[in-house]
Amino acid sequence: MGKLRPGQVEWLAPGHTGRPRPSQSLLLLLWTLLNCVLGSGAQGPGEWTPWGSWSRCSSSCGRGVSVRSRRCIRFPGEESCSGISHEYRLCQLPDCPPGAVPFRDIQCALYNGRPVLGTQKTYQWIPFHGAPNQCDLNCLAEGHAFYHSFGRVLDGTPCSPGAHGLCVAGRCLSAGCDGVLGSGALEDRCGRCGGANDSCLFVQRVFRDAGAFAGYWNVTLIPEGARHIRVAHRSRNHLALMGVDGRYVLNGNWEVSPPGTYEAAGTRVVYARAAAPEETLRATGPTSQDLLLQILLQEPNPGIQFEFWLPRERYGPFQLQTQARGWPVRQRQPQLREVEPRPLEGPTAPPALIPTLAPDPCPPCPDTRGRAHRLLHYCGSDFVFQARVLGRHRQAQETRYEVRIQLIYKNRGPLRSQEYVWAPGHCPCPPLAPHQEYLLAIRRLLSPDGTQDRLLLPHAGYARPWSPAEDSRIRLAARRCPP
Q1: Are 314 and 220 a contacting pair, CB within 8 Å?
Q2: Is 38 helix (H, G, I), strand (E, B) or coil?
Q3: Residues 280-290 as b or e (16 or more Cβ within 10 Å = b)
Q4: In the predicted model, what is the mean pLDDT of residues 302-313?
Q5: CA distances from residue 91 to 62, 101, 166, 180, 482 in whole angstroms, order as listed
Q6: Which long-range contacts (CB under 8 A, 24 or more apart) does 140-149 make?
Q7: CA angle (417 as vertex; 413, 419 as ends), nearest 5
Q8: pLDDT at 35
Q9: How confident is the model at residue 9 (pLDDT cuts 50, 70, 90)?
Q10: Helices 371-380 & 468-480, crossing angle to 10 degrees?
Q11: Of 137, 118, 117, 116, residue with least CA distance to 128
Q12: Potential cystine with 175: which of 90, 111, 166, 356 (Cβ 3.0-4.6 Å)?
């Protein structure tokens, strides 16, 4: 078979395997590329090649940087790729031995004895850290009152002594939690790099119980895995912290510990005491085991505020432990940012006429005030929580509210941070206003065939605007429900 002429197609003989010869493969590839470039009119950005492997660390000890790169592949007429072609990450090697010469000192010393500044004079150079750009190799001539910049420092040079940032391509960059320099990635309150606080729950409460006598009183259990712990109170009482082995970390055995940093449960606890008087405990965590928080009472308890973040899988066991000890738990979900709708851009519309408001077609709701009503609905409900109404959607026979749950008082099943609450009728009683916070007693409505599982606010049910007074009343109702 002879050679193919341009544009000629070779048909395969019967029984041929269909596998093209090398010359055919090359021709098909060239034909495809020609069609892509000339026929289709290439548009849009090019495409990146996969990232290459990371280079060796720039330092032989301590901190340094490694780099990886990629190339932009584009045809004529295509735009350049969007993004970066080089990425740098922090590499951590064993600490440098004592007395090791710093990296910047080594770079300045390379110019010792070499003529600079257009003369034959030579100098001994040491780093100078007072120049504007800390990622330039600014070196001071020893014994003289001037410094000289020899260009950029090498990648991986610390920006300044003791700083966490490293110089890369002339810029001072800090590593994110992912180790990539300049990424800006941060750990969320749950300890996840780049997370959105959705893998843990925020536990917050004010302990107001007053002891009948002076001594140690249990406040709460701080469970294993807790992060960002904060405890504060204003009184002459003293906070005490005990480990699982029964030994006090601070303020135990009727002895007041000095303020300072204490090691406990795999984390550092910072204990501070001011003359106000005020005491605080703070710990970043996570805790490696349970801790028991107590208060050493010497005067009436004005309230102890405590909070921490806890992994979702640990919240259930923690709730059972605290309920078994008779410590009620107040839980708040992670806050979600609300974005206000922006007005549409364009010419300003002429002011519209204000229509006359028609009377509300909904009849007034029955009176649901009183302690008996609160107790009835609290004890007969499946869920009691504080929620913020995000939106409302009215249908023919029911109304659906989208709510964000903030505090949970009673819980007979799992709840998400955002739920739908259904109310019967186009005019539900009591009505809920968007962007307001309520205390709600909710029942679980499960259809017989199991296809629908809803949260129901019954007609004339319990829905009160949230306030500290209503918070106290609902907690009192919780203690009076029959077992």
Answers
A1: no
A2: helix
A3: bbebebbbeeb
A4: 91
A5: 8, 19, 11, 9, 61
A6: 148/116, 148/117
A7: 75
A8: 53
A9: very low
A10: 60
A11: 137
A12: 90
Please write the tens of the pLDDT for every residue from 150-204. 999 998 899 988 778 899 888 898 888 888 888 888 888 888 888 888 888 998 8
Helices (H), 210-251: none
Q: What span, in angstroms and rounded, lies between the C-alpha atoms of 303 and 87?
A: 51
Model confidence at 334: pLDDT above 50:
no
- Beta-strand relationship, 418-424 and 453-456: parallel
From first CA to last CA, the distance across the chain in angstroms is 95
The verdict on pTM exceeding 0.90 is: no
Strands 437-446 and 383-394: antiparallel
Q: Quick one: pLDDT at residue 386? A: 93
pLDDT at 74: 84
pLDDT digits (tens, 9 = 90+) for 372-382: 788 888 888 99
pLDDT of 291 over the 50 cut: yes
For residue 332, pLDDT over 60 is answered with: no
Residue 436 — φ and ψ, nearest 5°? -115, 160
Q: Which residues of 237-269 are buried (b: 16+ CB within 10 A; e: fewer)?
A: bbbbbbeeeeebbbbbeeeebeeeebebbebeb
- How deeply is 319 buried, as exposed, middle or buried, from its count of CB atoms within 10 A (0-12, 13-18, 19+)? buried
Whether residue 386 contacts residue 438, with contact meaning beta carbons closer than 8 Å, is answered with yes
List of residues 6+ apart from 263 with CB closer than 8 A = 269
Sheet with strand 125-127: strands edge to edge: 125-127, 136-141, 147-152
